Amino acid sequence: MKNCLMIPRVLIPREGFEKWAVIACDQFTSDRDYWKRVERAVGNSPSALNYILPEAFLGENDEERIAAARERMYADLEDGVLEKLNRGFILTERTTPSGTRRGIVACIDLEEYSFERGEKTPIRSSEEVVKERLPARVALRRAVPLEFPHALVFYRDKKNKVGRYLANEDLEELYDFELMEGGGRLKGFYLPDDLSEDVSELMHTRGISFAVADGNHSVAAAKRFWEELKPTLSAEQLDFHPARFMLVELVNLYDESIVFRPIYRIVQNTDAEALMRLLQRELKGKWEGNIVHLAGKGPVPVERCDALIERFVKEHGGTIDYIHGEEELFRLAAEAHTVGVMPRPLEKDDFFDYLDGGVNLPKKCFSIGEAREKRYYFEGREISYD
């Protein structure tokens, strides 16, 4: 059984945690006001906001934003904004309305990961990766010396072996603070080398050990950059170069706080009546105004629906977006020329089975919790020797 993890030296900010931590860039993609509030809250303070490309603004001045992120990272390193911890994992506790989610911040080995269909690797993507969405992320990773990722990766631990192993350990607390914009509370505890090694062994299983849950495109971009970099490296560098690895938060699929929620589809600026007639003719479900409640479990109904709306938009016009949370879906669906689609959530026990044999779920097939419960950027590491 291959060891797919690496124990990193993690970077965290020395102070100002509340302004440093911001939500994953792929959230609130249709709500620019959210990101403008975050910008106002951060002001001129050091923040992970300065390192990322929020998807709400993707395609607008990307090159300038990437150059600014690079400059800010080097400045923050020079100014001592960041503290490098000793080698070790970090145990996180994220408290939200869904409960307290416990995770382990560690590095996955990108050599053991694939997002390509049919490839059987110990670390798998869970969703179809839209390759057209990778270039901006690869360009950012190519340009900067640090990563502050938002990816969540599942492991299977139905008996909670990791949690029981750590339950009686007296761990050093690194941070404990409230996240902005109703994100809940985040705590972090340092796991020294020996504990990290033991935890790593407990997480590995036969077959697929790890599956990317959130941040599939970010992990795929890291893999793309690593494949791009490999031909320029010596044999020794291939084994140890920091870009071979990616920092993620590992979460037990069976953690009680993990709640699978569907990701809703919203089709805007289209012929809503014609689209609704098509969906009623081709799909099973309930119809509530211009919102479709899909019937059937698993990825197949989602895949069929996506194919229909993508074909319709190509022929008749419109835009498709992916929404986390019923409140935002109903708000947007109330607009004219708009249709919303609500799939059913996945079942936990089926999750790894769906991926067996190198299969991916349809893109945006599931979500972990509501939008504000998504991972916030906080911990980072170096990915360059510069």
Q: What secondary-structure arrangement, pairings included, does this model have?
A:
Layout: E1 5-6, E2 11-13, H1 17-20, E3 22-23, H2 32-42, H3 62-78, E4 82-84, E5 89-96, E6 99-109, E7 113-114, E8 123-125, H4 135-143, E9 146-147, E10 152-155, H5 161-166, E11 172-178, E12 185-191, H6 193-203, E13 210-214, H7 216-229, H8 235-240, E14 245-252, E15 260-261, E16 264-268, H9 272-282, E17 285-288, E18 291-294, H10 299-316, E19 319-323, H11 326-333, E20 339-342, H12 351-355, E21 367-368, E22 376-377, E23 381-382
Total discrete domains: 2
Low-confidence stretches: none
Shape: globular
Radius of gyration equals 21 Å
C-alpha termini separation? 34 Å
Sheet-strand content, in percent, reads: 25-35%
> How many beta strands in the DSSP annotation?
23
Oligomer: single chain
Description:
The protein is 31% helix and 25% strand. It has 386 residues and is an alpha+beta fold. The protein folds into two domains: 5-259 and 369-382, no CATH class; 263-344, no CATH class. Strands 1, 5, 6, 7, 8, 10, 11, 12, 13 and 14 form a ten-stranded mixed β-sheet that branches. Strands 17-18-20-16-19 form a five-stranded mixed β-sheet, sandwiched between helices. A two-stranded antiparallel sheet has the order 2-4. β17 and β18 (291-294) form a beta hairpin. α3 (62-78) packs parallel to α4, α4 packs across α7 (216-229) and α9 packs antiparallel against α10. It is globular and about 60 Å long. It starts with a strand and ends with a strand.
